[in-house]
Every structure is written in structure tokens, then in C-alpha cells.
Write a structure and sequence with these properties.
Distance between the termini: 40 Å
Largest sheet: 7 strands, mixed
Radius of gyration: 14 Å
Shape: globular
């Protein structure tokens, strides 16, 4: 079992920045992919960004150039730096870790709300 705790959500004005952090505990291994997803009201959960053990990252087209994902394997953390935020970025953001070869090892945080509004 892996436990995830997220930090850093809140209210920010359009054009502003926010940094989300997620810390993993329990049976976490470096092979796990670490990422962030989000879900806006009435929408399905969608991928924001994901990073592999080596730091290779994949981003949703909607956040490319604005968001940066980073991980620290020694601290078991994954961060999401969000810049140039837009109202359409408003959503609950979920931390996710998953084993790349074992579908059953897929874990979620409880989510943190990000609201972009003036």
C-alpha cells in the first residue's frame, strides 16, 4: 500500500503561480511513475503530467510550457509547478503513483483544490 499526501492548493489569480507537492509513504519504490491528474466539475479526471523514475516527463497539451513536474526519489516527492494559470485550470488536482508493470499498484491522493479566479 502507498499513501499519498498532497500540499499546496488554493486560490490564485489568473496569470499567477502555484506549486503543488505530494509525498509518498508506505510501500513506495523508485520504479513507480509519479504524476498529477485533475478533475474539474462535470468533467472526467484527466492527466496533467507524469514523470518516470529517471525524470522523463509527459504533459497534457493544455499545460505544456506552463507547468513543470519534478520528483525527488530520495524524498519520495513529486511537485507540480504551475505558472501562467488560467481559469480553466481550476480543478481538484490528484497525486498519483503507479507501478509501470503492475496495474493493481495504482494509488491516488485525496486531491487538493486549485481555483484560478479574479
Amino acid at each position: 500500500q502507498v499513501y499519498l499526501e498532497e500540499f499546496g492548493g488554493g486560490l490564485v489569480q489568473p496569470g499567477g503561480s502555484l506549486r503543488l507537492s505530494c509525498e509518498a509513504s508506505g510501500s513506495f519504490f523508485e520504479i513507480f511513475k509519479m504524476g498529477w491528474y485533475r478533475q474539474a466539475p462535470g468533467n472526467q479526471r484527466e492527466l496533467v503530467a507524469v514523470t518516470t523514475r529517471t525524470g522523463s516527463a509527459t504533459y497534457a497539451d493544455s499545460v505544456k510550457g506552463r507547468f513543470t513536474i519534478s520528483r525527488d526519489n530520495s524524498k519520495r516527492t513529486v511537485d507540480l509547478q504551475m505558472n501562467s494559470l488560467k481559469p480553466e485550470d481550476t480543478a481538484v488536482y490528484f497525486c498519483n503513483v503507479r507501478h509501470p508493470y503492475a496495474a493493481s499498484q495504482n494509488y491516488w491522493g485525496k486531491g487538493t483544490l486549485v481555483t484560478v479566479s479574479s
